[in-house]
Design goal:
The complex is a heterodimer of chains A (456) and B (434).
Chain A lengths: L1 H17 L9 E4 L5 E6 L5 E8 L13 H8 L11 H8 L3 E6 L4 E8 L3 H13 L5 H20 L2 H13 L13 H5 L3 H11 L5 E7 L3 H11 L23 E8 L4 E8 L10 H13 L5 H9 L3 E8 L7 E9 L5 H18 L3 H17 L4 H13 L7 H9 L3 H11 L5 E9 L9 E4 L2
Parallel strand pairs in A: 2-6, 7-11
Antiparallel strand pairs in A: 1-2, 3-5, 3-6, 4-5, 8-10, 8-11, 9-10
Helix pairs in contact in A: 2-8, 4-9, 10-13, 10-16, 11-12, 12-16
Chain B lengths: L1 H6 L8 H4 L6 E4 L5 E6 L5 E8 L13 H8 L9 H11 L2 E6 L4 E8 L2 H16 L5 H18 L3 H13 L11 H5 L3 H11 L5 E7 L3 H12 L20 E5 L5 E11 L6 H13 L5 H8 L7 E5 L6 E10 L3 H18 L3 H13 L8 H13 L10 H6 L3 H11 L6 E5 L6
Parallel strand pairs in B: 2-6, 7-11
Antiparallel strand pairs in B: 1-2, 3-5, 3-6, 4-5, 8-10, 8-11, 9-10
Helix pairs in contact in B: 3-9, 4-5, 5-10, 11-14, 11-17, 12-13
Classes of the chains: A alpha+beta (456), B alpha+beta (434).
Chain lengths: 456, 434
């Protein structure tokens, strides 16, 4: 009895995941007259709500000389409007018992609050206010640009692996703006002006370039009413035309080396691969996702089992592939060689693993395991309201619909072993490859001796 | 994002009335002797189980630093009847997720599985084997020692890790909390060390088990016994010495990084201390309250010195630390250090203003539902309550305990626990400025 009851419940969840019928099922959607879309997913497990505002403007929309402005503006969004003083936004969220922050990606900039559900209306009021009424005070800008430069030092300049990825992006891509770091080049930050931030804000921060995602213990009709009230009065404006900036074809291998203080060498191999543009017609991105899981989906997946555990070639080895993006896709193989092994040894090891799949294919149980993990992961995701809101927001950001989510899972489940073998054969060619290596530099010996002195 | 995880595989780190009640925590002792804490919740077809042992790094024997972490790491790398590959494949087939960690006090193993019997039962069989029959194969040990040593060597080049290691060593010079694994100590470990550490510390008496999710009480009772009955039994109680308070010192360690890393700290707070609530509420205003704390205002908002600056208490089984940390470009390291010290000294002397106190209470009480709005968060809370023996109504009374705190109590509690005469300072990088 208990068991069948549980299986029924599981089946129910799967049905919800698999078949969101427009107009009927959760999530619910509504568009305001000014173009702003509101997506609401009711989840009544706890009396809280996640509120997010996503703008379709990120690092890839920047132009040369003002890199980092999308992220800088994200910081300035906390610096006040005529009705909310500098720093007031976060103070009000904190007073409401909430948590807030924001993040800038290559594809988007997004702002969120997690709050007790009664405070949702206030959050919508605050976000609507700063969507069109930001102060952009020059004095606040002068302070905040310093904070952003500290952020760059902390997260990139002093992080050898971040530096490696930054340099690799700029080599692997030559025309597409994905080549530029989201935080911006330091020299562009040093020369950034408040007018740059203002131009960015005026260009992109309009309701017709944004969407709101709410997940939580809310009634969707109530949320739509609140959205009309707070976001409704904001005027839309025509958006500038976005240029495609398509990357010219790469015709040979590219290599680069970064030197930085570190102990462990790192090898990153980045192959240009497709991402999902059409959920129905595309096939290869789903097969690439399965390939990634078969190589690196769990502790005994191929990279771990073969490269780390059996051959002892690497102390770490993994893959990275995101099948959804506004810009071009990249499939990463990355890791650190074991002591006594070289970066070239590890690169050869990576190549051999791909070649083996291209030649022999993958076993049925490897593929079914990758699929089982994916299905369970979709259910585990339901434990977090924030994760559910992120999933909706990220799909929308790349031009797909959250309503296609279930279909994408079905397409993943339908991937065959032959398809996995075919993508291993077709995409992992030197013509599409950039290899980036971290060449670790020892700390100067003179810098290694700590000393302690009494303070008083 | 997955890449970030991959890149760091070696880092082994409303109204008060309405929401005041926490989840109903059921507690019993399994026949094995393990303490069990259970929250029944059928809203999702998921079960989370976490087992914590008093087997954290503080229990590393003298000269064997790194043993607790390595023992924990090898639990699932070969069990009776199943090698590491078979074990991982089986969990993968079930879609189950096994994870674990060792901090100062606790060594933990946790399993997240779908609750349907055809997934749950075999996944829990794997968990039981991991808890009760790890084999610590010699060749796996050699491999993992090499990986651990490589990770430690990498850490020794990182300014944040150098600062943290130096601070902990200075805060706990003669105490287990200050002991740190080194390449030498890890290289010297042998299989017999792991076997002995497991036998002595992974006992039913030192285990607490937290379960949250789609299970009945009757099923939970059976499960708790099944998972722990194979553990060895021992009357030996886990004890740690009380640390001595160090004398304030300042260490400067050179490093070529663009930023200097500044840390201050001292042993300050033990789990179960009656000053817990005054210190936590006070720290919200000092440096715990995200964008609205004094440290954030003075260091980041007013001066643009740092991206991140914070203070926190880490209460442990014995006196855990109070810490302040920030990073700033080398040239302004001394200025930033002075600002942080001034903010701390002023707060110790004056405590929070009435407005700050109200803001702290508003947030800590108001945000209470956010601490419990997923099974995962409930599990985290329940496992801490269980492991440290906090009252079962800790969550139910959290809001009223916060509301009750006065500014005078905060001043008195800070005066008792956070003393400038015992405050250690470590600055890594930025030497050329002196």
């Amino acid at each position: 009895m208990l068991c069948s009851e549980r299986i029924t419940r599981l089946a129910l969840v799967l049905v919800i995941l698999a078949a969101p019928m427009p107009g009927l099922a959760n999530p619910f959607e509504h568009q305001l007259g000014n173009g702003l879309r509101i997506i609401v997913k009711e989840d009544r497990r706890a009396q809280t709500a996640a509120h997010m505002v996503w703008y379709r403007a990120g690092g890839m929309d920047e132009t040369s000389g003002t890199t980092g402005v999308a992220h800088l503006l994200e910081h300035m969004m906390f610096k006040g409007t005529p009705s909310t003083g500098a720093g007031e936004f976060s103070r009000l969220v904190a007073a409401a018992g909430g948590r807030d922050n924001a993040f800038t990606g290559k594809d988007y900039t997004a702002y969120f609050q997690q709050v007790p559900k009664q405070k949702l209306a206030q959050m919508m009021q605050l976000e609507a206010d700063r969507m069109r009424h930001l102060n952009l005070d020059p004095k606040e800008f002068e302070q905040e640009i310093k904070v952003v430069m500290e952020e760059r030092r902390a997260r990139t300049d002093d992080e050898p692996q971040s530096l490696l990825f930054e340099q690799m992006g700029a080599v692997a891509l030559q025309a597409h703006p994905y080549r530029v770091p989201i935080i911006g080049w330091m020299n562009d930050l040093e020369n950034m002006t408040v007018q740059d931030a203002r131009d960015w804000y005026e260009r992109w921060y309009v309701p017709n370039n944004a969407y709101v995602v709410v997940v939580g213990d809310v009634d969707h009709n109530e949320v739509f009413k609140l959205a009309e009230q707070y976001y409704g009065p904001l005027a839309p404006r025509a958006l500038p035309k976005r240029k495609p900036q398509i990357e010219p074809e790469q015709t040979g291998i590219r290599r680069l080396t970064v030197k930085a203080p570190a102990e462990l060498p790192v090898v990153v191999m980045a192959y240009k691969v497709p991402v999902i543009r059409d959920v129905e017609k595309d096939a290869d991105p789903y097969a690439l996702e399965m390939l990634s899981a078969i190589l690196d989906g769990h502790d005994a997946a191929r990279f771990s089992r073969n490269l780390i555990r059996e051959q002892r070639l690497a102390i770490s080895a993994g893959t990275g592939y995101d099948s959804t993006a506004r810009g071009p896709g990249m499939f990463y193989l990355l890791g650190s060689p074991s002591e006594g092994k070289t970066r070239a040894d590890l690169e050869a090891g990576f190549r051999a693993e791909i070649a083996r799949i291209a030649r022999d294919g993958v076993a049925a149980d490897e593929l079914s395991r990758a699929k089982a993990q994916r299905v369970a992961g979709q259910i585990f995701k339901l434990d977090s309201m924030f994760a559910q809101a992120m999933e909706i927001g990220q799909l929308e950001a790349v031009g797909l619909s959250y309503r296609q989510d279930a279909r994408m899972i079905e397409k993943l489940q339908a991937v065959s072993a032959d398809q996995v073998r075919a993508v291993a054969q077709n995409y992992f060619r030197d013509e599409q490859l950039t290899v980036a290596e971290l060449d670790p530099q020892p700390l100067p010996l003179s810098l290694r001796v700590p000393s302690a002195t009494p303070r008083h | 994002m997955k890449l970030a995880q991959l890149l760091c595989p070696l880092c082994l780190a409303l109204s008060a009335q309405m929401a005041a009640a926490g989840p109903k925590i059921e507690h019993w002792i399994a026949p094995s002797g393990a303490r069990v804490f259970f929250v029944e919740n059928h809203s999702l077809p998921i079960l989370d189980v976490q087992v914590d042992f008093a087997a954290g790094t503080a229990y590393d024997p003298q000269g064997k630093a790194g043993l607790a972490s390595l023992t924990q790491a090898l639990l699932d790398m070969g069990v009776r009847g199943m090698d590491e590959t078979l074990l991982s494949n089986r969990l993968g087939d079930l879609g189950a997720q096994l994870s674990g960690d060792a901090d100062m006090d606790r060594a933990s193993v946790s399993l997240r599985t779908l609750s349907a019997a055809d997934k749950r039962v075999p996944a829990l069989d794997v968990l039981r084997a991991v808890l009760t029959s790890p084999q610590f194969p010699a060749d796996v040990l050699e491999r993992e020692k090499a990986r651990t040593v490589a990770g430690l060597k990498e850490e020794l080049t990182r300014p944040d890790a150098i600062a943290s290691n130096a601070l902990w060593a200075a805060m706990y010079p003669a105490h287990a909390y200050g002991r740190q694994a080194t390449p030498e100590s890890v290289n010297a470990l042998v299989r017999a060390d792991l076997v002995a550490f497991y036998r002595n510390n992974y006992t039913a008496q030192r285990a607490t088990m937290a379960m949250v999710g789609d299970l009945s009480r009757a099923q939970a009772e059976i499960l708790a016994q099944e998972l722990t009955s194979g553990l060895s039994s021992s009357s030996a109680v886990a004890t740690l010495e009380m640390p001595q308070l160090p004398v304030a010192t300042e260490q400067r360690i050179a490093h070529p990084a663009a930023q200097a890393h500044l840390m201050m700290g001292m042993p300050a707070l033990k789990r179960g201390d009656p000053d817990f609530f005054p210190l936590v509420v006070g720290n919200y205003s000092l440096g715990g309250g995200g964008f609205v704390s004094r440290l954030m205002k003075e260091v980041r908002e007013k001066r643009g010195f740092a991206y991140s600056v914070h203070s926190y208490f880490l209460p442990l089984a014995q006196t855990g630390p109070f810490q302040i940390g920030l990073q700033t470009k080398k040239a302004q390291a001394n200025d930033a250090l002075k600002v942080a010290r001034d903010v701390l000294a002023a707060f110790i002397a004056e405590g929070p203003s009435e407005a700050e106190l109200q803001a702290a209470k508003q947030n800590l009480v108001g945000s209470f539902p956010l601490r419990l709005d997923s099974n995962r968060k409930i599990l985290d809370n329940v496992s801490v309550i269980g492991f440290y023996g906090l009252p079962l109504d800790y969550l139910d009374r959290y809001a009223e305990n916060v509301e009750r705190v006065t500014a005078a109590e905060i001043r008195a509690a800070f005066a008792r626990h956070v003393k400038l005469d015992n405050m250690l300072t470590v600055v890594v990088g930025g030497l050329e400025n002196n």
